[in-house]
Amino acid sequence: MFDKEVIKKCFVILLVAITIITGIAFIRRTLSRYDSKAKSQVEADLAFWIVRESFQSKSFAIAGEIQPLPSTVNDISEIADSEVSQYMKEVIFTVSNHNEDMGSTVPMKYNIIVESTTYMPLEYELFELVETTDEEGRIIPQEKPCIITNPPNVITDSYGTKMKQIIAGWDDNSLKMDYVDEDGTGKQTDTFILKIKFPKYENDILTGSEENYYFADAIEYLKIKIDASQRVGDELLE
After folding, report:
1. Does residue 129 contact residue 191 with C-beta atoms inside 8 Å?
2. CA–CA separation, 28 vs 34, rounded Å?
3. pLDDT in tens, 124-151
4. Fewer CB atoms inside 10 A, N or C side of the chain?
5. Contact 166/148 with Cβ under 8 angstroms?
6. Same domain, 27 and 139
7. 98 and 8, same structural domain?
8. Residue 62's domain spans which residues?
9. Can you tell me the mean pLDDT for 18-24?
10. Rounded to whole angstroms, how far apart are CA atoms 8 and 28?
11. Lowest-pLDDT range, 137-151, 164-178, 183-197, 218-232?
């Protein structure tokens, strides 16, 4: 016959093991949800999915949404937060190595290209939104500046329209993604912010009320392109 004390101890050990395993799984799910929440604090305007080699583009337009800075202001940092949207437009977009149906099965790399028409003399800045931890241990987003083509290249599209072209890059070659395992390990989403504004005009160029209405009827067409390809050879070591 079996020793009841031995059976009881085995049952207790099994119960404790199940409790520990369940607790670990719960913690992992909780951390996963927290991480996802932290990474999605900013709602994206555009989303790209690079699950295979591809060339994608998304277009949008700016029509009288922003205006040049007043002549009495030297930099947009002097503008109150509640009024910044009058002088600068932010377009937030994401690049992911997975979508709802599948993930990339190979390591990928990608380039970001921004093209715009030349109807308005706009300036562009691009930032990657990365996570950092403050003094209290909270995860907060931080803008990492991107190196862009300055001045922009001027190209002519297939319709004969002149376009400004900006190619983005980083010193640490961070525009790369790993493959996604069957269990979902390796999923990655990069978030970027494209900031668009007018350059600072001197008084002899735009004066008085002209600052507000000079470009009121102009429309600028923009396109964000993602050129994704597989990482091979030495690129896998980067």
Report:
1. yes
2. 10
3. 999 998 888 878 878 787 888 888 877 8
4. N
5. yes
6. no
7. no
8. 44-237
9. 46
10. 30
11. 164-178
